[in-house]
Amino acid sequence: MTEKTLAKTDPVSDLQDRMIKELETVIDPELRIDLINLGLVYGLSLTDGVATVTMTLTTMGCPITQVLTQMIETSLKRLPEVNDVAIDLVWEPAWSPARMSRFARVALGYHQ
């Protein structure tokens, strides 16, 4: 079996991919880049219908935390497996622009 075939038949990988796709629709209103490309999402899991998103923010005390939480909940609840969403907000490891994808760095004009 090839790697590609394995990934298609692995329900955990499929669900994780679909969760990531949904989170790619959550755009940070200030930076106008999605949470995945910003590197804010550190982990995803689903247990008994509850999707847990382990993530950080670009700064502590971010004024849009509640907005992002609502957007995350809305996006993940589109998946039939997700009944509820829990956000596990962490500050370690600290976020830095190095966590951004190449796309996000180019879009934001960050060259380093």
UniProtKB/TrEMBL annotation:
Membrane spanning residue stretches: none
Pfam families, alphabetized: FeS_assembly_P (PF01883)
Coiled-coil residues: none
Gene3D superfamilies xrefs: Fe-S cluster assembly (FSCA)
Residue intervals of the MIP18 family-like domain: 23-87
Protein name: MIP18 family-like domain-containing protein
